[in-house]
Amino acid sequence: MATLEKEFSKFLAHITYPLVLIVILWICHYYNEYHNHIYNTWGIYPRAIDGLKGIFASPLLHSDWNHLISNSVPMFVLTTLMVVFYKRVALASFIIIYILVGLAVWLFAREVYHIGASGVVYGLVSFVLWSGIFRKNTRSIVLSLVIVILYSGYLAGIVPGKEGVSWESHLFGAIIGVFVAYIFKDILAPDEIELDPWLDEDNTKKSFYLPRDIFEKTKQQRAQELLNARREQEGLDGWEQNSTENY
């Protein structure tokens, strides 16, 4: 029972920050909706000085409740995955993706107001996916496969053409997610490090009755090694005998 309570407490600790983030998104949307979406002009307006505030404000603004919900669910899932599995880099990765996506949209996107957290969501999807490719440990690869299964449909979002969709945010989010995954690929949590089963905990070689590669060698190779070892031993015995006779 104590173990169950401990695991439940750990689970609550992991989802605390993702839940706080979602609550902030919903409060901001409710406030914006209550004021007839007048704050949509706080979105990113590319290459306009006044549009710079959208780098920080636009992910908090959504056009309607469906837009908010469609971003809230993957945002919660992905931030939870990052907190649980990439806790050493989760906060830094989120902040970098959040800011760089907004900056890229401000620099290169069409001159319309861009709002919504979908660019950040695409960045998080890309980060988790490519972390498995760059880190190459079992857990990260499994997470990448989960992301492919859950969010493969997101590929369509980076293609221009759908009216009312900031495909630029999606595209830049996907690109920046790859970049962030790469720069943090060598920062591993202790439980990400896969230990060599042939080493002790202090990284010293374990002692084994048979050589580790005994089953990887052919019978002829083993016989040749045994013959070489015997010749070496006979040569050493002969040298010791000659040395004794000289004295």
List keywords for this structure.
247 residues, mainly alpha, Rhomboid-like fold, 8 helices
Can you identify the CATH superfamily of the largest domain? Rhomboid-like
The poorly predicted ranges are none
The CATH topology assignment of the largest domain is: Rhomboid-like fold
Number of helices: 8
Helix content: 55-70%
Structural class: mainly alpha
Q: Write down the domain tally.
A: 2
Tell me the overall shape.
elongated
Rg computed from alpha carbons, rounded to a whole number of angstroms: 29 Å
Largest sheet properties:
none
Strand content: under 5%
* Distance separating the two termini: 76 Å
pLDDT averaged over residues:
85
CATH architecture descriptor name of the largest domain: Up-down Bundle
Number of strands: 0
Write the layout of secondary structure elements.
Blueprint: H1 2-34, H2 54-57, H3 65-85, H4 90-108, H5 118-135, H6 138-151, H7 167-183, H8 219-246
Helix pairs in contact: 1-3, 3-5, 4-5, 4-7, 5-6, 5-7
Task: Give a verbal description of the structure.
This protein has about 250 residues and is mainly alpha-helical. The chain folds into two domains: about 190 residues, Up-down Bundle (Rhomboid-like fold), CATH 1.20.1540; about 50 residues, no CATH class. It contains eight helices and no strands. Helix 4 crosses helix 7 and helix 5 runs antiparallel to helix 6.
What does this entry show, briefly?
The protein has about 250 residues and is mostly helical. It is built from 8 helices and no strands.
